[in-house]
Amino acid sequence: MARRRFFVDRIHDNRAELTGDDARHLARVLRAETGQRYEISDNHRACLAEISALTARSVTFRILETLPPPPPAPEITLYAALFKFDRFEWLIEKATELGVSQLVPVNAERTETGLAAAAAKRVERWRKIARESSQQSRRLRLPEISPVLPLADALADTSPHRFVLEEQAGAPPLMQSLPPIGATDKLALLIGPEGGWTDRERALALGAGWHPVSLGANILRAETAAIAAQAILSQAYHKVS
Hints:
The protein is an alpha/beta fold. Helix content is 31%, strand content 27%. The chain has two domains: 5-66, CATH 2.40.240.20; 75-236, Alpha/beta knot.
């Protein structure tokens, strides 16, 4: 059985400290004891560590060894037009499991009125969801969860390969449009809102150099499209360590 992984603020002098909700969960729920071993990450390297001391509020680890890093893969930025928060949180959780590097909420023309303003108060909650999902999926690094951007700012992304999901007929499949392994270190993916893109938004995306791609003939819900696309990217660039 794989060891649980936790994120710490830093690893220094072969020691690290876990505090906050994660420490309370480890101490009270998992009933951890000194001498038990877990994996920890400081967002740069993962280590096997042993609990050297714990209280109800903090857990101190002694580093035993640095673990091998995962194989390199492109950084993937997912721009997702805002939709209802319960489903958007599900998107964050699953995209994190699938390896997204950065997730940026986008205010599109068909985004429900008020969501963008309300989203500003949700960012910290979304980061907590991403942290929990990162620990569950044993990621090395936490994804960046950004504040909401207007579409025009999202389209200014400078990744060498940028794809916008298009539900209208004629766009090539995403899988067939990807650069080969090793040909890029950054990708950006843009997911539209419920109701799809407006003609003006399509023109803006094309003018900014984004490439329309398709996930097939069926019309998918926004969160389904986002996760399906992220899964394709994750599998396309997966390397066996």
